[in-house]
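Attaching the record inline, Q. Sequence:
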Amino acid sequence: MSALALSIFAAVQLGGAIAPVGASVAGPGTPSPARTYMGLSGDLVVPAPLRPSVQVRVDGRIDEPEWAAAPLLTGFTQYDPVEGVAAAMRTEVRVLVTSDALYFAVKAFDEPEAIRATLARRDDFGDSDDYVQIVLDTFDDQRRAYVFRVNPLGVQGDGLWVEGRGGRGDPVDWSPDFVWSSEGRIDSDGYTVELAIPLKSLRFPDRPVQDWGLQVTRLTQRNGFSDAWAPVTSEQVNRLAQAGKLSGLRDLERGMFLEFNPVVTGSNSAQWDGDALGLVRDPSEREFGFNATYGLTSNLTLDGTFNPDFSQVEADAGQITVNERFAIRLSEQRPFFLEGTDVFSLPRQLVYTRSIGNPVAAAKLSGKVGAWNVAYLGAVDRVSGSPNPTVNLLRAKRDVGSSHSVGLVYTDRSASRNGFNRLVGADGRFVFRSRYTLELLAAGSADAVPSSPAVRWGSLLSASLRRSSRTFTYSASFENVTNDFRAESGFIQRVGVTEAQARMGYTFRGSQGALVERWGPSVDIESTWSHDGFWSGRGPEESQVSMNLSASLRNNIGGFISWSRNNYDIGAEAYDGFAVAGHGGTAAFLPDQRLFQGLDAVRLRTWMSPWEKVDASFGASWNESPVFNRGVPVDLADRWSADVGLTIRPSGSLSAELGVRHVTLLRKRDASTYSSATIPRIRTRYQFSRSLFVRAIGEYSSQERGDVLDPVSGSPILFCRDACSPRTGSDSHDFRLEGLLGYEPSPGSVVYVGYTRSWQDTVGFRFRDLSARSDGLFVKLSYRFRM
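Structure, as predicted:
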């Protein structure tokens, strides 16, 4: 292990900021006079400032002589809310390179009293604090890059920029955590941050001389101004293609990369026992787990885990499920499955790692080989009451040209010799004229269960086209999924359908400092057919047209309003087996489809964060909604919903998130309540330091659902197979508290002590008859050894 890596790792482990360097560069490279690179003038190629050794203390002060001779990157331009104008505030960046680390020093000029900075958790300050961000495209392929974000106090955020990743804003996956050091300081001129990034924390080509893409951005939270060193335009879809260059990097040495991460956990839990009429405590459990990472090459990494522990992962927020038509997707939060799996991204989620519920052991190989990005994930899942299935996920993605890519995916989940689900797919992403993106996907599945010798074969085909622009945008997509398509290692909500969608929007932009920064209308059209109905020429079973208007005002205030009209025309075959109870027995149930025609909906949402210590959001909607039973509409209701979110930061160390969601469905026939759900949630966190914190979560979930009734007679609707049974009402009122004390000096090195307790209430929000249902105490110790 080099002196640099040791010192950086030790400093991060101990929460310090010292990163002395004494490594020698194998090859030429001597200090050169400082030169200024003006992004505004297009001077974007920076010869790598190689140094045989530097003595830099990462403390937020740029006072070492090495920085005076380092290249200066300045001349930032704003790209949001106004594009292409000179940045309102000056930013200066200096960079140094040794054979095993990169150093950055950033001076962000500002009024010190206006700077927003908190002692937030890692990766969790992007919506509250000012920050600067370094983007390193180490393969210079303009598709994937490392992101290192630092707020004015030196708090870290890091992730992977993946071009083509869905969602609004920057396409960054914030789940990976890398080992690096940073420090920040606020002074009379603004704030200064320093970063030291070891090459051990990066993947890069194994070449003697190479160029890396380089971008530096800055966000000022109070006004939403986003600035970049290399000018950025929305007229080009690929942001990495607009970055500058750090050129002439030579003889970089990642060295041997080996990490061990042993984990020890202890827990004690209790569960409600109805016979004993109380909590029955289970025997205490102690477990050992182990994670290991080995760098096969500078760009290929092997990870393994045995008996992984996910006890520190925050429980999923409660979901309202009283009238959900399809399964709800939950985001992955478990570290082993998050890191290095960006290659598994596809136009549709054919890989969903939460399908691996309780792994006994798992291994992962990921990296880049030539023009190919490759990833393999294998696991043995633990399933109660059945043989443990084995899971194999394989993905290969090849870069083509400057912006295109093609890929293959294979998944296999096998529970026994005769039971399996296998899938193979191919996809492509093509960018034309810098602004048009075409995505294609074709997949086929084979599914077999031990009780049946037959193998079910299914297919999925999808295509989408998007136009990127600062003003006029549109998108269109088409997807066809057969009835027998199964993706047990993925997440596909609906099968046996054909869907088409289109969206068109225009954005009007204000001038710099204008009250209305941007506003514009958009139109969305969606249609869904049954798979067989589409190919036989029948009309759509579902359709929707939406008219939307959105606006963004100065000082981070925005909102939108939309109106939509929905139509449902479900085929009679979907109601096979449904019946309605009557005085003379039962009769076949088939609702009048006119009941589900011309359904209106209105939605409103607003958000605001003009204040330093408070962010707020509010949403409300009303719509005429079907009541669903087994995925088909059987009745009609008025659906009222609202949600309120409030984030309060009374100090730089304390934050509290308060949220309430409510949904009520009133039957159209008589305005009686079909369902009602309310979920308030409070989450507080106090940071004693960048490493030490305490977190508390309280959530109450009250959900009630009535009987499913015939919209004409009010009699129960039955579903008949071997016997007829109604879908009767249900109610649940659950209250949960979680507490966690954590110490995280660096990723993988943690001490956690946590406690969780849950209760059940007899009546929603009564709190007088709470009965305990479970509780649990756990302790976790882990340490990340790096060589």
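The CA atoms of residues 130 and 221 lie 5 Å apart. Residues 3-13 form the longest helix (11 residues).

More tomorrow.
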